Amino acid sequence: MTVFATTRTPRFGGAEIVQWPLPLNQRNQFDGLDLLAALDAETVPLCIFDPQYRGILDKMQYGNEGVSRGRARSSLPQMSEETIGEFIAGIATVLIPSGHLFLWIDKFHLCTGVGLWMEQWGLEVVDLVTWNKAKMGMGYRTRRVGEYLLILQKPPKRAKGVWHRHDIPDVVTEKVERIGNVHPKPVNLQARLIEAVTDPGDVVLDPAAGSYSVMTAAHQVGRQFLGCDIAGDS
Ligand SMILES: C[S@@+](CC[C@H](N)C(=O)[O-])C[C@H]1O[C@@H](n2cnc3c(N)ncnc32)[C@H](O)[C@@H]1O
Asked: What does the alpha-carbon distance between residue 157 and residue 9 come to, in Å, rounded to a whole number?
């Protein structure tokens, strides 16, 4: 089977009746790991996951990280690498064959951290999108304006018939305002990517939704949303 195969394993497109453990298309205060555990295997074509990385605060004791703006971010429920690994294991289970995980990742983890998780859970990196935030961030050496979205796919690896949009560049600029302590991810970029790998009416999963930018993006392109956050409204 190659990425140019035109067929994909059925179950895509929400053709089957699935009992969702939480109400769709709304904010749910719930633990994402419990949501993943309650979902049937191979029911979701796309999960977008934006972990609250603890590692960068622990490992890079530099500059103002963990002091001023870093402190506000630290007040959000953090995820250890072990917890993030548990999330990814759960996501790998609930994805349909050839389904996607879009994993938001910072420069630190991009360079050092995720390969092992992916090998362990059998997901394959198939692309990378760089988000230019058009806003200067932190950094001991260079100042960060970029964040990264790893595009991962559950086997079998396919592009044709699975990736529908071919107008998305791999560097995208989109300015986004902070909401409280949460740094929302770009709605328009996520919406285009959701359109690329799902069909209208499909359910998009985000088990750690923060400001629910994924729900907004999913609705923008006529998809349904299933997700939660362990914290209340952000
Ligand atoms: C980086 S933020 C997500 C931001 C989101 N992508 C957005 O665009 O607004 C990570 C979120 O994970 C949540 N979180 C941490 N542990 C969680 C858990 N076990 N279950 C669900 N959410 C969790 C935090 O409360 C935080 O809102």
From this structure: 11
